[in-house]
Amino acid sequence: MNSDQTKLCATPPIEKEAIRIGAPKTIAAGIPGVTVALKHVFKEMSLKTCVPTLFAVNQMDGFDCPGCAWPDPDDHRSGMGEYCENGAKAIAEEATAARANPEFFAKHSVEEMSHWSDYKIGKSGRITHPMILRESATHYEPISWEAAFSLIGNKLKTLDSPDEAIFYTSGRTSNEAAFLYQLFVRQYGTNNLPDCSNMCHESSGVGLSKTVGIGKGSVKLEDFYQTDLIIIMGQNPGTNHPRMLSALQKAKRNGAKIISVNPLKETGLTKFKNPQELSGWVGSGTSLSDMYLQVMVNGDVALLKAIMLIMLEAEEANPGTVFDQEFIKNQTADYEAFIADLKNYNLNSLSENCGISIEQIRATATEIMRHKKMIICWAMGLTQHKNGVDNIQEVVNLLLLKGSIGKPGAGTCPVRGHSNVQGDRTMGIWEKMKPDFAEKLKAYFDFEPPMKEGYNVVHAIKAMYEKKAKVFFAMGGNFLSATPDTELTAEALQNCDLTVQVSTKPNRSHLITGKTALILPCLGRTELDVQNGEKQFVTVENSMGVVHQSRGGLKPASEHLMSEPAIVAHLAKATLTGNNKTDWDGLVADYDRIREAIDKTIPGFENYNERVRKPGGFYLPNGARDGNFKTATGKANFTINQVAEHNLSNGEFLMMTIRSHDQFNTTIYGLDDRYRGIYNGRRVVMVHPDDMELIGVKEGDFVDLSSHYDGVDRVAPKFYVVAYDIPRKCIGTYFPEANPLIPYDKYADKSHTPISKSVVVRLRKN
Ligand code: SF4
Known about the structure:
It is a single chain. This protein is of the alpha/beta class. 34% of the residues lie in helices and 17% in strands. It contains 30 helices and 33 strands. Iron/sulfur cluster binds at residues 65, 67-68, 70, 83-84, 86-87, 90, 241-243.
């Protein structure tokens, strides 16, 4: 342990700034969106770099936005720019002129930086050199690449078992880097490949695989323009996937209706001004949601059951007029069992459970019954609960009743929050090893892949905490701040002998470390990647299964940066000994060779190098999209799912953690949450005014939040109370500030996704 570790701050410190509260905004984007985006860009970048960079983002021959995974149009790309306010912020963060160079690290100790806010840490700039924090040292110091790889390789070679090392991946990693990374890890001998997907859409993957045979969404962007009805559940696209608003606008103009289901009334779901259009500057904007159901946190299964119960009544009164009986008969399994279970429920108790009135539920069911083609979109609001998998399966039940999958304008749409999180899983970043993939890797690379299941994120934290894992290597991300149970996770990381972070900018995971820590600085998406004297490109997969190129054009932030594929190759050469037969140098010298290997080992990537060079890339196969359900029954499966019960006692609340508008995952762009009217601070708790009165607090008071699970008390002190339009008994807080309250060992059944959206907490005046 470093000498300063007892004084280190693992959680964001209590803010000294004065928080300001205004009215939530009623319109998303428009002129304010453009103004804020430009403000961020000009603060970080010169005019010379920002203009070509912004015109290259998400273009056919440009680079993929490092933000979310919302897809680009298949054909035409806007000449005005294919990015949103938060995409511009993400680019400004990466292409900043600020530098965290050796002088910066010599000036600021690890302990000092740990007391900075996440915002301030992130504004330190791009890391320019490989850095090491030696055992008991107070400051990082530079280290050569050669010495860094040799240190990691020697440590990995001397572990008692490869299973004592953990290799984490964040959703930024390209297909090429991810493929090489999993190949190295498996040649090393373990499947310890936790990734950020474990914490977000793992519940979607599990639920969709069981019910429709593929753990990804089934719709294309084009389906939004052909559908009758879009239901958006537990998702805030205005902040987290902003260009989705343009798709919703176009869907509305084509006649679609939109129903939003969310505890908070989010600005992005109410009205949108498209800055790409004249009307977005001078008009009054497009109303998006036709109906808005402010469901209680985790009330979704109850709401869906209530809707389907009303639909069942109507179907039984006039058979064949509501449900798609032909689809149900030919393409689904377990319909009868599902209906028998549904009949056990009572509308009154379902309404009470979800917090939506019977009148509203009836109106919603009527709207759904009117339409034939329906898309259901969702995000973390459905997945991060104990019953996260059940939530997804219940969504599928509704789609199956309407036959609304496997045809144009209909299907599932889990929207991914990080640009290549879906692609990384496709490339084999997973703690599980599929036998057919193992066979292909064995044949192509001539080694025996391990088959034992590795650690997911929850298991990785446990293994480090119990000192069963000694090395933690992170390909991107900010593990400490992204994971639950911050204090325990900090201790887990500090138990390691060595922690390594492949990063572009400093974050809190560089400060709460193992006994020795390394930072390996890598190229960003915006930057030129030259190997062997030739410009390379990488590829990524978006939320709708399109694989396409990404070519950075900026001069790298430092001549000492390495690309992620090159880092993996050096790591492999320093670690794998004996008869390793992979030509790591050859693979990295020309990324076409990595894609050739992917072509031969992963289904759907045939002629990868040729097809990915076509403008816009190509779609991966998707059985559910074509009505071909590759499940155990060979059909789409109805499932029986339970209504979530929380039985809150007096004084208990259900807390959901959310992002602010100035935030992308753990990256904090600024201190404002403009759409929600919260400024200059992040340590806030949103509470219904009646609940505030009940517990005797008023807006502007400070409260401590606490949770109590299995005899362990967790406290997050000093949150500013904001009166907010949120269902009774529910509260909202930002992560990572509230992460210390979430027990790492409470997660979704079957998917291990932490329960970050339904944590039982109490509030006490500070
Ligand atoms: S919608 Fe997502 S991918 Fe598109 S520009 Fe915005 S943050 Fe980037």
